[in-house]
What we know:
This protein has 563 residues and is mainly β. Helices cover 3% and strands 50% of the residues. The protein is built from one helix and 45 strands. Strands 1, 2, 3, 6 and 7 form a five-stranded antiparallel sheet that branches. Strands 32, 33, 35, 36 and 37 form a five-stranded antiparallel sheet that branches. Mean pLDDT is 90; it is low at 1-31.
Amino acid sequence: MRADLRLSLTAVVTAAALAATTAPALAEDTPVSSPVGVGRAVTDETQRGTFKVTAWTDARGAKITAVSARVRQGDTVLAEFPALSSLASWSDPSLEAAYAPPAGTVLKLVEDGGVMPALGTYAIDVTATDSLGNRITRTDAGRLDFRVRPELKFGVSVPSWEDRAARGQGTLIGVEPGSGDVVPLGGRTITLRPPESSGGTVHTAVTDGTGAFTGSPVPISRGSYESFAATFTEDSAEVHGTTSEYRWVDSLKARQVKVTATADKKRAANGEPVTVSGRMTDPTTGNAPLANQPVRVYLGHHEYGRPYGKTVHTDADGRFSVRLIAAAGIEGAGYWQVDSADPYLMFPLLSGVLAVPVESRTDRLGTSLTANGKLTVTGVFRARYQLHSFPDRQQYVQLEQAVNGVWKKVGPTASVNSLYWNTFTISLNSRGGWFRLRHLTSDEFAESSTPSFRLARAETRTVGLNAGPEPVRKGADVTVTGAVQHYLDGAWRTLGNATVKLEFQPRGSTSWKPVGTGRASRSGQVSLRAKATADGSWRIRYYGDATHFDSPANAGGDYVDVR
């Protein structure tokens, strides 16, 4: 405490002590019917050398003008406060009726320059007066708790590789009222509650002469953030109160080691075994092997973050090897990982790529093969067992055709890559055959294909083409004859009743122009006539139907000279 405050307080309490030697016994000198009221006087818990009390008046238009108090032991007044200060402030109007000794005026022990003879409890009497002269004195308005307030300074030791236990430890002190001096509280019993995960039971520790204490060792196996609690309570003539503190094991002193690891593959099918192998050494001893140390190896996580893997121990040479079954679709799939299974053993997390493709499904939605040889296939690609799981990365689907018993890719490759784009279309020129859609294995999805399907039309042609007479007079008729055939059962056969077109190509031109339409007979024979207007070639062409291709577009015609 500052010297000036100590001197001023000494003067105040000394004068009060002198007055107390001749002070008469306190008596109620105001009628019980007084409108003035006094509440309970309560010791300030933080600074037990002072107190506060409430006072009020119910008289109309009146207000409290004076509040005084005295502290006594029996009939002996130890200290008197002629005027208590109002605690009201603009920031807290609720304290309007609250009063306390003036700031800085606190009671102290005689040995600290005060007037209090010893630690203990003392009576407080309060008198209040309002602006109309109404007054009341309340004897034993409260008890001043002038005892030491206990306080814990608590911590937890740091567990280590050598000592895997934590101990609650600290100091118990008492804060004296008034002076705020700190004194050790020796010979007291502290109750210590260890973490529930430790399996330990509540135990006690006794403070020494300096107030220091150390609890029993508590094994720590789960790492940091384990909570300890310390509690002390006493209600004696000199000490009163309860104090509790919570502290956490917020760090461990782990042993630093070196670990290397590799996997025997970078991609595995769902259900395929994967072997992860490695070695642990101690860099502080020239990388000597560490035997019988736990290592956790896993390939992702189950629900709620549970690792999908195993914990194994290193052999005499520090080596370990774990055989795991790859599982598609689990949390964190796509990597193998190795970390420490012992919080007191530290090394960086090791990991490597291990793609475990999810089973996929490729379906054909539609197909078409036009008469002019345009093949179109539409399909959809997705995960087989997860209806709402679609590829996040680009996936590729190809169309394959069976050629001499071997599947070969034909046409362009289709791609899909999102929820809104998992359908596809492949188009190409084709004369038909056996086909299938196939997705090749990627890191994200396994291989899948559709059942094979056949798209077929019969090939057609025109044979025996002849145009005449030749030469022909301009304006005269030209007769063009021929036959239409289709290829069935390994042979060219007659195609009867086929609708055909008569086409003409003028000399020097590369384009054919239709000049007439006709139909083959039941035997496939065709005979069509047209006016001869210029030199050129004539031909008959069949343009297919639902089961037949067009006849070849590059088929030549029969030239006729016009004169």
